[in-house]
């Protein structure tokens, strides 16, 4: 993967407003990389943990959040960050009709 593709993806993720979410596929499309949703997931998975990029606003196309990043208390970091922004997460899912970012 080139640094240019990585940069394109991160630039789009940076645009997602507080209180909104976008799907991996949506990010890929907006970055000019249609059908590369998995690449978006790869880039975000390998993001520096200290990054202030709003990675937590990216979810799958069914509205499900990631379960891989847990804090020391075993709480889902992505879910906690979304809740702090007013995004309702029920049973690990976000209603895209209510919270999806329309760019």
* Rounded average pLDDT: 94
> Sheet with the most strands?
2 strands, parallel
The structural class is mainly alpha
SSE pattern, N- to C-terminal: HEHHEHH
Are there runs of 5+ residues with pLDDT below 50, and where? Answer: none
Number of helices: 5
Shape: globular
Number of strands: 2
What does this molecule look like?
With 103 residues, the chain is mostly helical. Helices cover 40% and strands 4% of the residues. The chain is built from five helices and two strands. It has helices at 3-15, 24-30, 37-45, 77-84, 96-99, and strands at residues 22-23, 58-59. It has a two-stranded parallel sheet with strand order 1-2. The radius of gyration is 13 Å and the shape is globular.
Which helices and strands, and how do they pair?
Elements: H1 3-15, E1 22-23, H2 24-30, H3 37-45, E2 58-59, H4 77-84, H5 96-99
Parallel strand pairs: 1-2
Structural features:
103 residues, mainly alpha, two-stranded parallel ribbon, 5 helices, 4% strand
Q: How would you sum up this structure in a few lines?
A:
The chain has 103 residues and is mainly alpha-helical.
